[in-house]
Amino acid sequence: MKLLIAACALVASVAAFSPSSSKPAFTKTSLDAATLDKTNVMGRQGASVPEFDEVCETTGVTLTRFMNEVAKLNPELRELTTLFGGIDTACKAISNLVKRSQLPGSSTLGYEGNVNVQGEDQKKLDVITNDLLKRALRFTGKLGVLASEEEDNPVDLMEFDDEREVVFDETSRYVAVFDPLDGSSNVDAGIPTGTIIGIYEHDESCEIEGDTPKTDEQEANCLANTLQPGTNLVASAYCLYSSSTFFVLTLGNGVYMFTLDETLGEFVLSKPHLKIPESSSIMSFNEANLDKWDPPMKETALKWREGTGASGTRFSSRYIGSMVGDVHRTLLYGGVFGYPGDTKNPNGKLRLLYEGAPMSFLMEQAGGLSTTGTERVMEITPDVVHQRVPVIMGSKNDVQEVMDAYAAWEK
Description:
17 strands; 28% helix; five-stranded mixed sheet; alpha+beta
């Protein structure tokens, strides 16, 4: 049974999904690596870790075969594997769009003429990729609510008679959050871009019995399913569009990297159980803002530059300016990536819901850490969809050094 509710009923819930600059994005608590080792980083609190077998560990197996095997071993994830089938298709389509975007006469060139809720000019490619992902997820039949960087509010996936409506279905089990094209401002320069995706389950507060009409409060509860902490994530993934197209995902049992074989038209497993090195000598920040950072972050970065940090190793700097590209390199080679808070942007610039939390889930599953400096990113419950948060993530020992610096500063 489907319950269709017109978007005009959302007035009562709009405030929860509007940007806010008055309330800080996080509160200060401490978390060290030893504590995190004892924490269930599966995602959902108390959820069991999915079971994988040798098929899921075999390089060369396709993403489709991998997800079918996961579904066979974990029947409760069967609907999730269907959802990832849509994401797989969307990433392939976006990869082709990005490759062809600079051809003369391309319909993806230039700006749309609109400004998104972040105050950023929307490129045509932003809008096209956003619509493409929405359509791909809509037709899986497994999604109830969706939130995107390019949407002011969480939206439905159905349109009838040119009137946007919110659709809740008893088979629509999941909530998706995504950034359709992270780093889109770099497309013209041929710099890597990517798509970030997080998947949550619907909360029980969204359940409606029988033909009972849904009230504004009940609808607000359903749409508030997007405002969940990263610890509730069921799955997280990103697609990287670069020298190759990569698809990296976690279902709460390690990180698996797939590479698109364009001859086959399939993502094939290239790195099962990807692990980030525990220590490194690479930092990835926009160091032009260093003078505006909090003292502990600034002092730690300067020590790394000079080789006087905890490891005694002099760090080199590698910064692309595209989160997916920087995090991808950090996962493979180790290092610390981040966009800390500063005097201009005390809450940082990265969005918690569809950038910070999904990427933190991947980083922790690979054996790394992700923090604001004072709090684990995964444990922050967003107040609004587009809430920003400081993020420092990467190799365990190096991120712990940042956390220790903040802990000493607070004393």
